[in-house]
Amino acid sequence: MKGVFVHHTATVEKHANIGKGTKIWHYAHVREFCDIGKNSVLGHCGFVDTWVKIGDNVKMGNKVSVFRGVTIEDDVLVGPHVTFTNDLYPRSGGEWKIIKTLVRKGASIGANSTIICGVTIGSHAMVGGGSVVTKDIPDHGMVYGNPAKLKGFVCLCGDYLEHVKRGRTAVEMRCHRCRKTFKIGIQDYKKLER
Amino acid sequence: MKGVFVHHTATVEKHANIGKGTKIWHYAHVREFCDIGKNSVLGHCGFVDTWVKIGDNVKMGNKVSVFRGVTIEDDVLVGPHVTFTNDLYPRSGGEWKIIKTLVRKGASIGANSTIICGVTIGSHAMVGGGSVVTKDIPDHGMVYGNPAKLKGFVCLCGDYLEHVKRGRTAVEMRCHRCRKTFKIGIQDYKKLER
Amino acid sequence: MKGVFVHHTATVEKHANIGKGTKIWHYAHVREFCDIGKNSVLGHCGFVDTWVKIGDNVKMGNKVSVFRGVTIEDDVLVGPHVTFTNDLYPRSGGEWKIIKTLVRKGASIGANSTIICGVTIGSHAMVGGGSVVTKDIPDHGMVYGNPAKLKGFVCLCGDYLEHVKRGRTAVEMRCHRCRKTFKIGIQDYKKLER
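Above: the input entities. Below: the structure tokens describing the complete assembly.
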């Protein structure tokens, strides 16, 4: 793999596909048949399972675990100690069905969060540190807690969006910090849990 | 240790007792004087402390930490990133008393859960991902949250048990999926927290 | 570094400053330009980032991650799987501002807790296992939950302080176990969340 940096203490299995500019750090383990895009990072003790798909510019912190069935699009940040899952009825023996999870482009997952399989984390959404995500998060949604609840919407920069005005099908919101405006669909807006 | 697989990056101390068919994966650390049974697994960056007792067919995911004072019976699943504890009053210096924890046969502990020492996790119980377990869980009990609360009962297969009928000393319950029936003691049933 | 123990599987970068008697265990990673004091411990798979400052007699359990911007004073216990953070608006790309966190002398952080950056954890405070710390904790404060709430005050030994009598500026409290007495400022006492 040309242009891929693998720290000499890491383990990358044959048949792992890793894009140019990606860095695999200390004691990480990357399994065969996964795809990791370009300019991504897997931190200290990170783990990427077989058949996982990870995009470009994805930053995965220390001790992240990404299991089979998970897809992570471009520009996602996965904070340290985050773990995904892929089994809703985990047992030591017996049958086992992999449940899929999708993290859309530009989303961020805060440190030490647990992602219960079967959910979609929307584009540019943000999951607060220590959350347990048990249901879908809309695009730009900000969630936190155990279980994680939708508490607001965030900008591309990560800061809060403020309510500007409500239309028939969408709510116009503006970034507290960088003043960009976004339209949040009324169905998503109504999911806010105060 | 004949018939034990230890990945070449893992550290297994002398005087660790590990049964046939057990696998110790990348960067894991198994300390001396522990017992791990047959056909068990310790995942990437897992840790098993001195004097820990672990049964047969126990699956421990990535980055699990099992400390002295913990006993895990046969057929238990310990999800990724789960940590046990063994000290109720942790301080950097001073006295230190180990508090015991027991995980009974066939139980499952969801990803990234924290087990506060002193509890018994009942046979075939299930702990949802991201939980903080602070009290005993009855056999077949399903708990989740921080602190973890008893929310239902589960089958051997892990799916929910439905209430069939209440007797004088037990409630008859049937698996939603595989239709097996179980009797849940009335004292355990009353612990449900809605 | 004389008198420092570094396990042969660990990675300690040049220009890391580590005091005498400190132990760095299996697969841990200590980055350059950090300071770790004397007689401290970094457990299995632990991580200490650049420019972190850690005092003497600090015990850090397995899989702890301490990031740039964090200062840990003497005699602190950091339980296994604890992660710190240093970014309030984490995104994969773009600007990035480090937010500082301070852990004062003698505090303890329970297993698998998440420390959201920007907080001060008071001297001899205690954070229960699995907590998500989002605000300052007063000296001797006992917090737990997600988000962590102030539930009481604790002794040097870690056990609960009982209310003895209330003065004009402070509440006198006595340790349930070792009978030491402490004065807790009235402003801190009023922060208790039942």
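Note for the figure: The two ends of chain A are 49 Å apart (CA to CA).
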